[in-house]
Design goal:
This is Adenosylcobinamide-GDP ribazoletransferase. Its main location: membrane. Keywords: Cell membrane, Cobalamin biosynthesis, Magnesium, Membrane, Transferase, Transmembrane, Transmembrane helix. Belongs to the CobS family. It is a multi-pass membrane protein. The chain has 270 residues and is an all-alpha fold. The protein has one domain (37-268). The protein is 69% helix and 0% strand. The chain is built from twelve helices and no strands. Helix 4 crosses helix 7 (112-131) and helix 9 runs parallel beside helix 11. The chain is globular and about 55 Å long. It starts with a helix and ends with a helix.
Length: 270
């Protein structure tokens, strides 16, 4: 149990800015095993993103609540995945060879492609989240329990953050890692591919929120997996595999894909 707790806190240290016990370190062995808890870390990010939404939505407005939720998520993770997405935009937007793409990706400076990509993904996230509360049936006859009223919206956040963090783990299992491990954000989680038994924990964790939702929402998994592996295939075509920044981009795009799929199912299937 103590070992598993240390692995969990290692995952929390790696993916978030949340404080962890002092015994947590950057042990390569624990970092490699920490991928099993990536979706569970997604639950934590979702919870910390949901709380300001509920507060600001009750006392100010829905738009401000969504902005507060997005900011809370960014502060929780330190923009870890968003930064990876921006670096990928810069690298693949400005590089035409594997060497050039990897060189740009390692550059800590943010270029025009990265700025535009960051603005686009945050804007899309705001618009998609703005649509989600409108399809919460309980709002037609709200109770005094705000958690119950917004239970589908909250479950959507938990499912989105956990499922989107499962996608990089799956990509790590089936694709090759490239670039110098000493300069990568995925160091050293990508040093060894997760085994199939090791994937069971993150898969189950990512699927738990769906237990409390209508079964039709399971359909959202199909486009999320398709888009995540399409991105991985694209990365493999250009650089021969993935980097830590590529995994961050996959997480962000998977999250947006999930929100869009939820809206489509809510509107046209249920």
């Amino acid at each position: 149990m103590k070992k598993e707790l240390r692995i969990f806190f290692t995952a929390m240290m790696f993916l978030t800015r949340l404080p962890v016990p002092r015994f947590t370190d950057h042990s390569p062995d624990y970092l490699e095993k920490s991928v099993r808890y990536f979706p569970l870390i997604g639950w934590m990010v979702a919870a910390l993103s949901a709380l300001p939404f509920l507060i600001f939505n009750k006392y100010i407005s829905e738009d401000i609540a969504i902005v507060a939720s997005i900011i809370a998520g960014i502060l929780t993770t330190g923009a870890f995945h968003e930064d990876g997405f921006a670096d990928v935009c810069d690298a693949f937007g400005g590089g035409w060879t594997k060497e050039k793409i990897l060189l740009i990706m390692k550059d800590s400076r943010l270029g025009s492609y990265g700025v535009i990509g960051m603005m686009a993904i945050l804007f899309c996230k705001f618009l998609l989240l703005k649509e989600l509360p409108k399809f919460t049936p309980d709002l037609q006859a709200p109770s005094i329990n705000i958690f119950y009223n917004y239970r589908y919206f909250l479950l959507t956040l938990f499912a989105a953050h956990s499922l989107s963090r499962l996608m990089p783990v799956l990509v790590m299992r089936y694709y090759e890692y490239v670039t110098d491990p000493d300069t990568s954000k995925s160091k050293p989680t990508a040093a060894q591919k997760p085994t199939f038994p090791a994937l069971l924990v993150p898969i189950i964790t990512a699927l738990i929120p769906f237990v409390f939702m209508p079964w039709q929402f399971l359909l959202t998994i199909i486009p999320v997996v398709y888009i995540a592996f399409s991105l991985a295939k694209y990365f493999k075509k250009w650089i021969g595999g993935y980097t830590g920044d590529c995994l961050g981009a996959i997480q962000q795009v998977s999250e947006l894909s999930f929100y869009l799929s939820m809206i489509i199912i809510w509107r046209y299937v249920l």
